[in-house]
Structure to design on (86 residues):
């Protein structure tokens, strides 16, 4: 099975909800994860959430029905102890 990745970003001053900023499978997914690690961005694996987000286009905000699921992931990432290079 190919690795898959979706990157989300949220700027509460400019957006109503988090939006997809990158997506990829295989080598591109690995590249997204590599860049995230280099930038100190934590990674959370959630296959069910990925399946719910994979139909969104780059730049598209998440739908209202996914707010709670994404908020939970953001809370996990914000509360996780910061580790250098994950």
């Amino acid at each position: 099975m190919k690795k898959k990745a979706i990157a989300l970003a949220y700027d509460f001053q400019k957006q109503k909800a988090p939006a997809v900023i990158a997506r990829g499978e295989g080598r591109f997914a690995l590249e997204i994860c590599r860049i995230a690690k280099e930038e100190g961005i934590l990674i959370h694996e959630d296959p069910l959430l990925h399946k719910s987000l994979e139909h969104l286009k780059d730049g598209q905000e998440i739908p209202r029905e996914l707010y709670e699921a994404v908020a939970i992931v953001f809370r996990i990432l914000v509360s996780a102890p910061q580790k250098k290079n994950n």
In short: The first helix runs from residue 27 to 38. Strands lie at 4-9, 19-25. The radius of gyration is 13 Å. Residues 6 and 50 are 7 Å apart (CA to CA).
